[in-house]
Predict the 3D structure of the following.
Amino acid sequence: MKTAVVVEADIVGILRKEGRISSLVMSVNGQYAGRVSSGLDGKAKEWLAGLEQGSAYPPPFPKLPQSLKGTDVAWLRKPFRAEVTGREWTDEGLLRHPKIRLLRNRP
């Protein structure tokens, strides 16, 4: 994949599918920027599982994005930063083909 965009995103939520961490919810400048799963490895998922526990907090967005309705999202009390790459921004403000390059504040 040819990278065209590199962005510092806030990771504000963790999505689960069938009981497993499947992707992360991104926010850029307080706005929903999509989900990212590419680049998540086993060690990152272990670290994320520790963050998720006890994280029954409200969504950080005034209106829940349609694509997150009906999903199993654990909103984080304290978001963390990630460096994410992607192809481009869509008209809806979502990062197309996002991939995690670096999770910040990770031990």
